[in-house]
Design brief:
With 147 residues, the protein is mainly alpha-helical. It has 5 helices and no strands. The two termini are 28 Å apart.
């Protein structure tokens, strides 16, 4: 494995890049869906006007929802990676492996949400990602106390 991939910051960068890929995916799906639904972006005043908009293809909405999700729980991941890099157990193989696992899980979560959006499966994958974050945090706490 290239040396850079064993650094705890590499998975952080990978998730940032994945989020940007989803942003492009959002535009590719949403702009045509808005045009097809006859939605004029200039007339959208914010979330209060969404209820009055014509319905859009759900897959266009799912990508937007996933993009928003990539700005929620992953914030904890970014903080944990930075903390681990600066103060914690750094590049321990366990920590790097957990970080890469979290990124892979978020990619799977995206693929589920933007294709089938089967909520029971998406929820299970989300919980698996949450477990990775809990283990990352717990390992940092143990490191803090010299354990």
């Amino acid at each position: 494995m290239p040396h850079g991939l064993t650094n705890i910051m590499a998975p952080l960068l990978a998730l940032v890049v994945w989020t940007l890929v989803v942003l492009v995916w959002l535009y590719v799906r949403r702009i045509p869906a808005m045009r097809k639904a006859g939605i004029d972006p200039a007339k959208i005043k914010g979330s209060e006007s969404y209820a009055s908009m014509p319905p859009m293809n759900p897959k266009a909405v799912w990508v937007a929802d996933n993009y928003n999700h990539l700005h929620e729980q992953p914030v904890l991941f970014y903080a944990l990676c930075v903390y681990t890099h600066l103060v914690g157990p750094g590049n321990e193989p366990l920590m790097v492996g957990l970080a890469w696992a979290y990124v892979a899980i978020r990619v799977v979560h995206t693929l589920i949400q933007v294709t089938t959006n089967y909520v029971p499966l998406r929820f299970a994958v989300f919980n698996l990602g949450s477990l990775m974050l809990m283990i990352l945090a717990a390992r940092n706490v143990l490191w803090l106390f010299g354990i």
